[in-house]
Amino acid sequence: MRIVKSKRDLRALVSGWKADKQEVGVVMTMGALHEGHLSLVGAAKTDNDRVIATIFVNPKQFDNKADLDTYPVDTDADLKKLEDAGVDLVYLPQAEEVYPKGYSTTVAVGTMQDCLCGATRPGHMDGVTTVVSKLLIQTSPDRAYFGQKDFQQYLLIQRVASDLDLDVDVIGVPTVREGDHLALSSRNRRLSADQRAIAPTLYKVESTIADLIRQGEAVDHVLEWGRKVILDSGFDRIDYLEVRSEEDLELFSDVADRDNLLSGRIFVAAWLGNTRLIDNYPISR
Length: 285
Known about the structure:
Oligomer: single chain
Largest sheet: 6 strands, parallel
Helix content: 40-55%
Radius of gyration: 19 Å
Structural class: alpha/beta
Number of strands: 9
Strand content: 15-25%
Number of helices: 12
Order of helices and strands: EHEHEHHEHHHEHEHHHEHEE
């Protein structure tokens, strides 16, 4: 496994692969790797001749400096996991390599970002779409893999690739969960034992809401029930609990066409102490 820290070295290696007609997949991470990230690597290895992983804690997508300062970093452990998973190349740039002096460009999507995490974390989605755009240009992959736990991010990146005519397939990979159905996240390691026991409530609420909607229950009613269960379980506050379209994140309600509603997803973000957890669940499941 090669490790490079500059765009020049990265492009030299990728250009050699492309000259040999090898297809390239990329998995973008901020480190603190877990089995969810490795499932993306596995998907990339299945589809491509070569796999690149990037590790870059992107400062532009943090709306809270304290969150950035406390983001878990263990680069040596991450590199060992990637090597064991069969990654060919790790791109490990410093901030000045991604955002050199004088950098002033933002990639912003005009739709789908004024809701969910885009509404509750100002500037976050612009930071995500900007850095992903740059990394797609720098790595020049045939395919890029993103976890569907961050479903809004996945849709926005698909839109960026389409709108900017980037020659890459953006592929979503299903969420990986613990045995108790908690979605894997680098932030889970911040949870205390008591908080960790509470955290799977999000999945229980989502899956129950999906069952009730399929049975014909009113959306507003089941969402009100879900908010109460989440807060009563010990969560400190809820950023959102909503049903939206899988295609364009349109907000669904009881007046929505039933067939459209059944193809939607339940989206949730809630806080346990200083840790914010997100998840989503398809109603049609």
